[in-house]
Amino acid sequence: MSSETAAATSVSTHILDTSVGRPAEGVALTLSVRSGSEGAWTAHGAGKTDADGRCKDLPALPDGTTHVRLDFAVEDYFVSSKHCTHHKAIQQAEEQQDAPRVRDSGAFFPEVAITFAVKPGEHYHVPLLLNPFGYSVYRGS
């Protein structure tokens, strides 16, 4: 298969705020790539999640990419006055556990970095399930 006909390696993502059961809108993220496990990271794209919590316009990965890192800036999402329901969710969660009552920032995890390996020609959809005190990810479809 020539490089002109080979399918591009691509990445997409979305975020679901599990504390309120809704998509996380307006979360800034960056996409970085590297070739080889010892290679240097290179910024390759950036975006923000839309009203559906999705970031669909990340660029195709360069040839030779073996690893991808998605960096999500979630702190602004949790402290934004636009998302006031999250403040209530945080308060309720804190009351139900032995979490510190005072934190240095508005989010326990101010950023989330996800690193994963890729193979040429495949699409990788990486959802982030987020709440004020934790997160999980998986390879979606």
From TrEMBL:
Tell me a GO biological process for this protein: purine nucleobase metabolic process
Any one Pfam family match given in the protein's UniProt record, by short name: Transthyretin
| Source organism superkingdom | Bacteria
Which InterPro entries does the entry link to?
A: Hydroxyisourate_hydrolase (IPR014306), Transthyretin/HIU_hydrolase_d (IPR023416), Transthyretin/HIU_hydrolase_sf (IPR036817)
Please give one Gene Ontology molecular function term for this protein: hydroxyisourate hydrolase activity
Q: What class of enzyme is it?
A: hydrolase
The protein's matches in Gene3D superfamilies, at most eight in alphabetical order, are given as: Transthyretin/hydroxyisourate hydrolase domain
Q: Which reaction does it catalyse?
A: 5-hydroxyisourate + H2O = 5-hydroxy-2-oxo-4-ureido-2,5-dihydro-1H-imidazole-5-carboxylate + H(+)
**E.C. number(s) listed in UniProt:** 3.5.2.17
Residue ranges constituting the Transthyretin/hydroxyisourate hydrolase domain according to the UniProt record: 11-140
How this chain assembles, per its entry, is: Homotetramer.
Tell me the NCBIfam families matching this sequence: hdxy_isourate
Query: This protein is called what?
Result: 5-hydroxyisourate hydrolase
Native species = Streptomyces chattanoogensis
